[in-house]
Amino acid sequence: MADESGHREGRGDGAEAGHEKDTVMHNRLQDGSLKLYELDRELAPIDAIRVRREYIGKETGTTLENLAIFSIDVGRVTKRNCENMIGTVQVPVGVAGPIRINGSHAQGSFWLPLATTEGALVASVNRGCSAISKAGGADVRILHDGMTRAPVFATDSVTHAVQVCDWVTAHRDELKAAAESTTSHGKLADIVTFVAGTSVFVRLEFDTKDAMGMNMVTIASAKVGDLIAQGTGARLIALSGNMCADKKPAAINGIMGRGRSVVAGIALSHDLIKSVLKTDAKSLFEVNYRKNLVGSARAGAMGFNAHAANVVAAIFIACGQDAAHSIDGSTCITTVDITETGAYVAITLPSLPVGTVGGGTSVETQQECLKILGVAGSGTPPGTNAKKLAEIIGSAVLAGELSLLGALAAQHLARAHQQLGRG
């Protein structure tokens, strides 16, 4: 059986003693005198993972030998990224590109690592990359940058609620100093209050530099929340009151932005639309209008796009981002304008929480994908790598939208999935 380093496993001279120790551990897990999470206190990380996996395998009657194959540093991962670890799940990583990008931070040609199990996705993005590069490259810019956390407070009355909001406004500098005392990197950029009856939501927005920043802003928000409670008599109910809004579809993120807000566009000629996308400008426009705009509105969707979250999720998984934040990619708006020379296609991603330090970015395989893009670690000055990553993702989403719109306009979608996405 392959071990956790990907090599063939072989038991040494202490195999029998090790087996007896494992049996003792399994018995303790079985009788409840030892919890799964307590294995990390008694064993080295690699051994805790193995014992835990073997126990789960016996409990569920399954063979988990493939979960045991990995190359990442489990000592770091079990401390920072995953509790009760039993192994890893492997997701195929394909590459699309190169794609030419003309951004403020991302400039040049890039290969896009995409982690997915959906056949045809990488090929589709690849075609969009080809169209963009032949057209001279995607123009992409960061519109807004700020990670949010919104504590919710309970007040005694609506009058008290308004007084709390007034107090927050009057003590902005004091709150800013308190928030920034908790971090050497984050800066409090904005404070906005909202009232719903006796509930007050204080939406705090931070510049988190190259980190996605949720841990950073949560710790800072706790400090701010305590000061507001002390100064106003309001009761802090929860550090996150869902006005942030985190990992949920929310109009406020589409309107005010969260994380990095990105816009990307490309001018396509009639000839290029015909040769690469196999359709015409008028058809591109009509598919986008009736599907992405009218269809999404009729469905009550918060996103007006073809499949933006598909591309966001694939890059997020490959590059160590929080996969749950790929839901923000579904709030993308795709537009197509008819021009004299062809069509101008653009995407707007108002909420793209990304980072190049912290979280899953330090896992070795994800770190390698970030290196492919030239954004691993902190940038110079701090914040530039995260902005560069956001611009690359925006351009990748544009490529995915172009290709799918073209496939739909040319009636090629089913054929592509039959050829590349066979189940």
Q: Into which percent range does the helicity of residues fall?
A: 40-55%
The proportion of strand residues reads 15-25%
Enumerate how many helices there are, as a single number.
15
In CATH terms, the superfamily of the largest domain is 3-hydroxy-3-methylglutaryl-coenzyme A Reductase, Chain A, domain 2
Radius of gyration: 25 Å
Low-confidence stretches: 5-13
- What is the CATH level 1 assignment of the largest domain? Alpha Beta
**Based on DSSP secondary structure assignment, what is the total number of beta strands?**
10
Q: What composes the largest sheet?
A: 10 strands, mixed
Arithmetic mean pLDDT: 93
Would you give the CATH topology of the largest domain?
Answer: 3-hydroxy-3-methylglutaryl-coenzyme A Reductase, Chain A, domain 2
3D structure, described in words:
With 423 residues, this protein is an alpha+beta fold. It folds into 3 domains: 15-80, no CATH class; 93-145 and 260-420, Alpha-Beta Complex (3-hydroxy-3-methylglutaryl-coenzyme A Reductase, Chain A, domain 2); 151-238, 2-Layer Sandwich (Alpha-Beta Plaits), CATH 3.30.70. The protein is 44% helix and 21% strand. The protein contains 15 helices and 10 strands. The chain has helices spanning 15-31, 39-42, 45-60, 74-80, 121-134, 158-170, 172-180, 214-232, 251-256, 270-276, 281-299, 308-318, 364-373, 384-409, 413-420; strands at 93-103, 107-115, 138-149, 152-154, 187-196, 199-207, 235-238, 258-269, 333-338, 342-352. Strands 1, 2, 3, 4, 5, 6, 7, 8, 9 and 10 form a 10-stranded mixed sheet that branches. It is globular and about 75 Å long. It starts with 14 loop residues before the first helix and ends with a helix.
